[in-house]
Amino acid sequence: MIVMKFGGTSVEDAKAIDRVASIVEGRLAKQPVVVVSAMAKVTDTLLTMARAAGEGERKTALKLCRSLQERHYNTASELLGTALFTEFHSELGAEFEALDELLRGIAAVGEITPRTTDHVASFGEVLSSRIVAAAFAARGLKGAHVDSREVLITDSAYMSAIPHYEETNARLQEKVTPLLDSGQVPVMGGFIGANRAGITTTIGRGGSDFSAAIFGAGLAAEKIEIWTDVDGILTTDPRICPDARRIKVISFDEAAELAYFGAKVLHPATVLPAIQKNIPVYVLNSCNPSCEGTRITTRAPQGKNIFKAIAAKKRITIVDVAAPRMLLAHGFLRAIFEAFDRHKVAVDVVSTSEVSVSVTVDSNQAIPALAADLAKLADVKYEGRKAIVCLVGENLRQKPGIAGLVFRELADKKIRMISQGASEINLTFVIEEDEVPEVIQRLHKTFFAELDPEVFA
Ligand code: ADP
Ligand code: ASP
Ligand code: MG
Description:
Elements: E1 2-6, H1 14-25, E2 32-36, H2 42-54, H3 58-109, H4 114-138, E3 143-146, H5 165-181, E4 185-189, E5 192-194, E6 200-202, H6 208-218, E7 223-228, E8 249-251, H7 252-260, H8 271-277, E9 281-285, E10 294-297, E11 309-322, H9 332-342, E12 347-352, E13 356-362, H10 367-374, E14 379-392, H11 402-409, E15 417-420, E16 426-432, H12 436-447
Parallel strand pairs: 1-2, 1-7, 2-4, 3-4, 7-9, 8-10
Antiparallel strand pairs: 5-6, 9-10, 11-13, 11-14, 12-13, 14-16, 15-16
Helix pairs in contact: 1-3, 2-3, 2-4, 3-4, 6-8
């Protein structure tokens, strides 16, 4: 069997879902399990309405809910035609009634918790998976909706819940395998799950890729296909550099670094369950299904280019902790990192000198409190609006002098931190956020002007 995951833009309207149906139809012999995201932008809208309700703005929340309802009804009726839509109407209606009631409850209490946030956010995938399953059935594909909350069992860390793999795998065997055995096409929402008590959880933004990998690993899939709106993993973000080119094949390690450092095309954790089982992952374009896309495998040919791709991650804050005499004292660094841990602030890039340690973190609300806590230990400064730029490629391991080539191109730029990770497959540095486009375009021109056809398309 295979897993086919379709992202938000691939299910954004009736036309897109129609394309999905024909792509899936072409793969029926492979026994696909289909995983879908919420329709494009729906999760953002749901989170906006949850916040509005939490602030007591009931009318705003309900208005947003109604516009979402209209969009889903319109999509479903366009896909199903009048007769089938009438049948299906009550199924969707029940979901919107539940969402409406939930929002009223949140507005009445005037408080939104991570648990209720997940409950609201889950409607995006609940709705899209129901509509896609119904659309399949209407097209003669044996689509069978499976509620992912009965399959993906997680802990209770709302908004970024961690899967309990053994229980999830058992549920997959129980609820999905029989459908495959009887020739049906299971359709499941990504991103959503439930804890052991059956309360809805989500596994983090962009998490549908992760769901696809979890299901693929649990069902021992032959491959996992991540269908999106670009031809595959490209040499850089095409929105920054329109001449970005497709990477034909990339290693798991390279893809993981890229995802971690901002290449939004793939969720960072996606690769993990798949790596462990040696399942190849393909990134494909639902608007251009005949394109071969990008294959992600354990080992990939390296080709002649130094780098495979460039990624950038914005909204970064640098935290500088300076303690002239203390820094190398026993236990001091531990005390610093314990403070990051206490505030649940994850660290990306670290560099130290004798007198200070600089750390990058995703800009977020916890930073002022963290800084106040750190100020008890040392002098602390923090500065937002930074970005991490990361060049990735396994060739970095062998070739000397690469950092020189990169920074020569950026001689007029203020580089704040530089790091070459222990994995030796990335060269990472920190710049001002507003310089990202120029820096990426310049590096792309330098390192991707000529491409090895073995690796790049
Ligand atoms: P989906 O909704 O299918 O999950 P995403 O929006 O999460 O899609 O990811 C696809 C987007 O990622 C592309 O439209 C592209 O703009 C962006 N992107 C960023 N970096 C890259 C890259 N290196 N290669 C391909 N796409 C990239
Ligand atoms: N719908 C979720 C999000 O927007 C999950 C996903 O699309 O992967 O974050
Ligand atoms: Mg995505």
